[in-house]
């Protein structure tokens, strides 16, 4: 898929309506969610990819998980501002490099966050540097795989004494699940 076609599909309101508000099971048990934003960067290689991070195992929450660059929104910040700031802090992505295309529906997590995914396009080459206190690895997921409707899987596991179901995207080295997988699924629904 070309960069122009990706941009056209991301701007199309009918396609954006395919995406669904999502929530981690158990989110209703947490109380008022904390506002957060993530950057969903589509890298416009000849074969486009989605940029992801592997969080360091030293973090107090979500350690060792696959995630998008992002975090809590500061008072007065828009989701776009927060996503760009966090991408700068976590992976050294200059805030003027991403071309913001819009938002996907919010995702409510079981850990008390309302995440607003901000989709942006990036032109390579990129010189990214993971912030060692937050990110162990920056890697890319092939967009062609996201466009395959057979790939996302629903799995179940015990969490806080209850069985929960969640999305998982297959990857050779990393377990891509939970909020990140749900956001990837919405991106796929818009782009398919």
From TrEMBL:
Keywords: Hydrolase, Magnesium, Manganese, Metal-binding. One of its GO terms (molecular function) is coenzyme A diphosphatase activity. Residues 33-163 form the Nudix hydrolase domain. It holds the Pfam family NUDIX. Residues 1-30 are annotated as: Disordered. InterPro entries: CoAse, Nudix_hydrolase, NUDIX_hydrolase-like_dom_sf, NUDIX_hydrolase_CS, NUDIX_hydrolase_dom. Its cofactor is Mg(2+); Mn(2+). The keyword Acetylation does not apply. Belongs to the Nudix hydrolase family. This is CoA pyrophosphatase. It comes from Teichococcus wenyumeiae.
């Amino acid at each position: 898929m070309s960069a122009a076609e990706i941009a056209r599909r991301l701007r199309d309101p009918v396609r954006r309506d395919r995406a669904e508000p999502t929530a981690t099971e158990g989110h209703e048990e947490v109380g008022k969610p904390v506002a957060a934003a993530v950057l969903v960067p589509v890298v416009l290689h000849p074969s486009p990819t989605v940029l992801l991070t592997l969080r360091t195992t030293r973090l107090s929450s979500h350690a060792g998980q696959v995630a998008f660059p992002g975090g809590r929104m500061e008072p007065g910040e828009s989701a776009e501002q927060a996503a760009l700031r966090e991408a700068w802090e976590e992976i050294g992505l200059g805030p003027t490099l991403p071309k913001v295309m819009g938002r996907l529906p919010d995702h409510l997590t079981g850990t008390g966050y309302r995440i607003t995914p901000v989709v942006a396009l990036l032109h390579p080459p990129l010189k990214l540097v993971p912030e060692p206190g937050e990110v162990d690895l920056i890697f890319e997921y092939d967009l062609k795989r996201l466009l395959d409707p057979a790939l996302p899987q629903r799995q179940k596991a015990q969490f806080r004494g209850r069985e929960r179901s969640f999305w998982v995207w297959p990857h050779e080295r990393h377990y891509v699940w939970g909020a990140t997988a749900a956001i990837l699924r919405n991106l796929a629904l818009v782009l398919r």
